[in-house]
Design a protein that fits this description.
Elements: H1 5-16, H2 36-47, H3 58-76, E1 83-87, H4 93-100, E2 104-109, H5 112-125, E3 129-133, H6 141-147, E4 150-155, H7 165-176, E5 179-188, E6 200-206, E7 216-225, E8 230-239, E9 245-253, H8 257-266, E10 269-275, E11 289-294
Parallel strand pairs: 1-2, 1-4, 2-3, 4-5
Antiparallel strand pairs: 5-11, 6-7, 7-8, 8-9, 10-11
The chain binds S-adenosylmethionine.
């Protein structure tokens, strides 16, 4: 197919007229995990054992779950039978492994294809897991009741940083409500000093990617906003078959340790312990973990 010059000209105009510089969350939020087609393409990336993108490889995840089980044993004195809620569980890889080790896992996410995979594996292996379709930014009482009370909550892979501070502070309070007194929370957080505090542009060519299912130009622009201590990356994806352009964005919030401890404290979660990345497999895809307990 020959690209349509009219579409290419429109793409040029849209890119030319885009916000300059883009502002985190005002000019885009996050990649469309919840979109059906996108989530189908992303499922392949989650399950790819050749990279740690979207989900880490199974050996790393099993390592993480082993680490978690040690912490749960130390904090709660049990090595089986705990109820653990996994936030943004994706294809359920953490939940599956927890259930294989004798715990009850509850996962939720808003991406349909990974959730379907999570459910299928649990059914096939007869694992004690339940999965829910829910948006972390919209956890109403009914949804929280579906999760039930849990002994521990996990939130892996630094996805926590993809939310604005006030949004994160608000869902921490909601999540804390389902945690039993004395319950444990493990949060994998992108380190404050790990953010690229410079503006940069980049372009790539891809035969296919989660952002487009055919050959495309991938134009990427990264901006750091010092005032809100956050980054935004804007992606312009130009389909080489049609000349059509699609815009995506992804924001990340940097948290100082003391601000994070304060937000956790406001949610009734105290005694923060900061631990280094669990395996050290790849600093781009594995982050430090902060653990806290809910007050009794
Ligand atoms: C980097 S992936 C990690 C998936 C999984 N935790 C893992 O490590 O295998 C981030 C996940 O967070 C989910 N997510 C992002 N924003 C969300 C929201 N507002 N509500 C629910 N899930 C969300 C995405 O759909 C995606 O599955």
């Amino acid at each position: 197919m020959t690209p349509d010059c009219g579409k290419l000209a429109r793409a040029w105009t849209r890119i030319n007229e885009d916000a300059d510089p883009p502002v985190p969350w005002r000019d885009g939020n996050k990649i469309p995990w919840h979109d059906a087609d996108f989530s189908e393409r992303m499922l392949g990336i989650h399950l790819d054992q050749g990279s740690h993108m979207a989900s880490r490889t199974i050996d790393i995840i099993n390592h993480h779950v082993g680490w978690l089980c040690d912490r749960l044993q130390a904090a709660l004195g049990k090595d089986q039978g705990l109820r653990v809620l996994d936030v943004g569980c994706g294809p359920g890889l953490y939940c599956h492994e927890l259930a294989r080790r004798g715990h009850k896992a509850v996962g939720f996410d808003f991406a349909p294809a990974p959730l379907r995979h999570a459910q299928e594996v649990a059914e096939r292996e007869g694992l004690d897991c339940t999965f829910h379709h829910a948006d972390l930014t919209d956890l109403n009482d009914e949804t929280l009741a579906q999760f039930g009370k849990v002994d521990a909550i996990t939130f892996w892979f630094g996805e926590f940083n993809s939310f604005r501070k006030d949004v994160a502070a608000s869902f921490l309070k909601r999540l804390s409500r389902v945690l039993e007194p004395g319950g444990f929370l493990a949060l994998e957080v992108q380190p404050y000093d790990g953010f690229v505090r410079e503006d940069a542009t980049d372009w790539q060519l891809h035969a296919a990617s989660p952002l487009c299912d055919g050959p495309h130009f991938w134009l990427q622009r990264h901006n750091w906003d010092e005032t809100v201590q956050a980054e935004i990356t804007v992606y312009w994806i130009i389909d080489a078959r049609t000349g059509e352009a699609e815009r995506f964005a992804q924001c990340h919030q940097a948290w100082k340790d003391e601000d994070l401890v304060a937000a956790l404290g406001d949610a009734g979660l105290d005694g923060a312990v900061f631990e280094p990345p669990i395996t050290g497999c790849d600093e781009r895809f594995e982050f430090p973990v902060v653990t806290v307990r809910k007050g009794r």
